[in-house]
Write a structure and sequence with these properties.
There is one protein chain. The protein is α+β, with helices and mostly antiparallel strands and 436 residues long. It has helices spanning 4-13, 18-23, 27-36, 40-46, 54-57, 67-73, 122-125, 148-153, 197-204, 234-237, and strands at residues 86-90, 93-96, 114-115, 133-138, 144-147, 157-164, 187-196, 212-217, 243-248, 251-252, 262-264, 277-283, 298-300, 315-317, 324-329, 334-336, 340-349, 355-361, 369-370, 372-375, 383-391, 395-405, 428-434. 15% of the residues lie in helices and 29% in strands. The strands form six sheets. Strands 6, 7, 9, 10 and 11 form a five-stranded antiparallel sheet that branches. The longest helix has 10 residues, at 4-13. The structure holds the ligand Nc1nc2c(c(=O)[nH]1)N[C@H]1C(S)=C(S)[C@@H](COP(=O)(O)O)O[C@H]1N2 and molybdenum atom. The ligand Nc1nc2c(c(=O)[nH]1)N[C@H]1C(S)=C(S)[C@@H](COP(=O)(O)O)O[C@H]1N2 binds at residues 112-118, 163, 165, 188, 217, 219, 228, 257-258, 270-271, 273-276.
Length: 436
């Protein structure tokens, strides 16, 4: 059996950047390396190449370009309801799908990522709505308790909405930061059905003193942690696209995505979208749970030196996403023939802002052309972009996509760094090989 060090040496010898190899030295994949890879050839196979492909790899593993290994991991672990999910953890469950599996305008439930801080509640696992309700209390005139039937009797809305984990893209942070090394797939745009949160809050009657929400769910914490809880300012809670959802893509919620009901706060980091909802506490101050304070879901108020630790009082709550895009077709590492035309496509989104254009490049950012761009439904669903590309000559290329918003922001080429790896929005680079 090969040791990790032997495999690491082999991959580095084959042209992989040591930092990129180490990025995969996370407990889960390490275990798989040790059990699955008997010798060097197997290690290369894990990275998507046949034995003897060593020399051809040189140059392919530029920094940040090591997606093949990751695609391979997808087959390793099956989570019920989420076939093919790339699983970072099983306790709690955390997993994502690679961009080429997220091409649909509306993300199918089996392809919607899962980000859990705690265990899946038994009620959700059993899909048993008996006895479930949630309360609204705190700075309200009429505290409420609502059952699933109560929710279903209220006016319902249905719309595709983006949920994206604040840590999506963390895997591209350099130096590495702790936390799930999400690549690009901790995002989904499912069609959610539910009631507007503001309808529920209006029913409870917000007091003048109401300032912030505090959300609670019934997922049992692991290892003595506080129950996972975050909140949002009242203005965002009252926004018409902020929902309490009880249907996802026309069905009951998936147990992993919050059955029987969850909050959906589109455009903001996913942690605002409390799953397995049990309580909305209206507060007269900014919510101050563990996950609202310190370095949790907070970013420095100014750009910091990569790897440094800014003082806690310089950290501010992470809220809405900034402009981003993702190429969903072709898949990373697609092989093409010289002269081949490629209809490239993907998604763009911009938190609270509007996407104004997406530029694409096939020559490492030297030349750019504007993709066709369409807003698909509401501003909190992703936009579609498409571009006709051609690769006349053989060689190694990358398709780059860069989205711009109506505030004049664009995606960066190098990921700005923060201590916990939030809000990653570096340009997506899809490697393609033409006749090589
Ligand atoms: N009760 C509860 N709600 C939660 C979480 C959690 O751990 N417990 N995780 C949050 C985080 S960090 C994210 S990114 C989203 C993920 O939603 P999804 O698993 O449906 O994709 O749920 C949020 N809601
Ligand atoms: Mo998240």
């Amino acid at each position: 059996m090969a040791t990790w060090d032997q495999l690491r040496a082999l991959l580095v010898e084959s042209g992989a950047h040591p930092d990129d190899v180490d990025r995969f030295d996370v407990a889960a994949s390490r275990r798989r390396f040790l059990t699955k890879a008997g010798k060097g050839g197997a290690a290369l196979a894990l990275f998507g190449f046949g034995a003897g492909a060593g020399p051809a790899l040189t140059g392919l593993f530029g920094r940040g370009l090591i997606p093949v290994a990751w695609a391979q991991e997808a087959q390793e672990q099956e989570i019920p309801g989420k076939p093919g999910m790339v699983v970072h953890n099983t306790r709690p469950i955390n997993g994502e799908f690679p961009p080429h599996l997220l091409d649909a305008d509306v993300t199918p439930t089996p392809r919607h990522f899962v980000r859990n801080n705690a265990l899946v509640p038994e009620r959700a696992a059993n899909r048993d709505p008996q006895g479930w309700s949630f309360t609204v209390d705190g700075e309200v005139n009429r505290p409420l308790t609502l059952t699933l039937d109560d929710l279903r009797r209220m006016p319902a809305v249905t719309m595709p909405l983006l949920i994206e984990c604040g840590g999506n893209g963390r895997g591209f942070f350099d130096p590495k930061v702790r936390g799930n090394p999400w690549r690009r797939g901790a995002i989904g745009c499912a069609e959610w059905t539910g009631v507007r949160l503001r309808d529920v809050l209006n029913q409870a009657g917000l007091r003048e003193s109401a300032r912030y929400t505090a959300h609670y769910g019934e997922d049992p914490p692991i290892g003595g942690a506080q129950p996972f809880s975050r909140g949002i300012p009242i203005a965002k809670a009252m926004e018409e696209h902020t929902l309490i959802a009880y249907r996802m893509n026309g069905r009951d919620l998936d147990p992993l995505n919050g059955y029987p009901a969850r909050i959906v706060v589109p455009g903001w980091i996913g942690s605002c979208s409390q799953k397995w909802l049990t309580r909305i506490w209206i507060r007269d101050q900014v919510h101050d749970s563990d996950k609202m304070t310190g370095y949790s879901y907070r970013v420095p108020a100014y750009p910091v030196v990569p790897g440094s630790r800014p003082p806690e009082e310089h950290m501010v709550i992470a809220t809405e996403w900034t402009v981003k895009s993702m190429i969903t077709d072709p898949a990373e590492n697609t092989r093409l023939q010289p002269g081949q035309h490629v209809a490239a496509r993907g998604h763009a989104w911009a938190g609270e802002d509007r996407v104004t254009k997406v530029l694409v490049s096939t020559d490492f950012g030297v030349n750019w052309s504007e993709a066709r761009l369409r807003q698909l439904s509401n501003p909190y669903a992703w936009y579609r972009f498409e571009a006709d590309l051609q690769f006349p000559d053989m060689g190694y290329y990358e398709i780059w996509a860069r989205a711009f918003d109506d505030k004049g922001n664009a995606q960066p080429f190098a990921q700005p760094w923060n201590p916990r790896g939030y809000m990653g929005n570096v340009v997506h680079r899809v490697p393609v090989r033409v006749g090589v």
